[in-house]
């Protein structure tokens, strides 16, 4: 960028007219001691040659910069998921907005991992540590989340249909919006402080049972079932 700025901002000028200086006698101003003294000027061909080289260099750099920007734009436009990387200790692998159907995350530490809008059908999260992970608007149909630590996880707008949440700890998890738990196994799951819609709570209470092995809380009690 520094070179490009120099190319855009620098100007070189040449003056092919020689400068003349006259020296006069103070006693007789009309009689010059030296009528004219010509000062040497830079050789115009050399200046023009340097200027031409710099112009060519600037043009090359400008074209290369434009091509680089256009190439990057095309790559991200063709695959927007490359602009996002999942957080957490799973590393730099992209987990946001991806098709991760059947992916095995069993037993992994995925704290605050970003799975927003991803397809996670039949994915295995059994026993995984997913504290604060985001499943916002994700498709978890048929996923195995049994024995998983899901405290503070975000399931807002997620499709958790026919998933397995048995013995999972969802304390403080978010389930706002149109989150669906239809057909999900929740035996032994802990829903303490999970803000469920009334219709979802009523639905889950129909088949809620069991005791969470970690917290010791009964599933029905955590759902505030009547």
UniProtKB/TrEMBL annotation:
Its GO CC terms are: chloroplast thylakoid
Task: Output the Pfam families linked to this UniProt entry.
Answer: Pentapeptide
Top-rank lineage group of the source organism:
Eukaryota
Q: What is this protein called?
A: Thylakoid lumenal 15 kDa protein 1, chloroplastic
Q: Which organism is it from?
A: Fraxinus pennsylvanica
């Amino acid at each position: 960028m520094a070179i490009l700025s120099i190319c855009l901002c620098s100007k070189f000028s040449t003056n092919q007219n020689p400068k003349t200086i006259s020296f006069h006698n103070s006693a007789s101003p009309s009689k010059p001691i030296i009528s004219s003294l010509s000062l040497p000027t830079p050789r115009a061909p050399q200046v023009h040659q340097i200027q031409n080289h710099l112009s060519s260099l600037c043009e090359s750099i400008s074209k290369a910069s434009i091509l680089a920007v256009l190439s990057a734009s095309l790559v991200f436009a063709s695959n927007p998921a490359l602009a996002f990387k999942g957080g957490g200790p799973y590393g730099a692998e992209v987990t946001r907005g991806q098709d991760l159907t059947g992916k095995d995350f069993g037993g992994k530490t995925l704290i605050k991992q970003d799975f927003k809008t991803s397809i996670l059908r039949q994915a295995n999260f059994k026993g995984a540590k997913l504290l604060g992970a985001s499943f916002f608007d994700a498709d978890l149909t048929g996923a195995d989340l049994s024995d998983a630590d899901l405290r503070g996880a975000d399931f807002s707008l997620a499709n958790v249909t026919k998933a397995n949440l048995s013995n999972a700890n969802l304390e403080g998890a978010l389930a706002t919006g149109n989150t669906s738990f239809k057909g999900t196994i929740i035996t032994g799951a802990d829903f303490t402080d999970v803000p469920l819609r009334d219709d979802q709570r009523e639905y889950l209470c129909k088949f809620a049972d069991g005791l969470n092995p970690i917290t010791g809380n009964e599933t029905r009690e955590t759902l505030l079932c009547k």
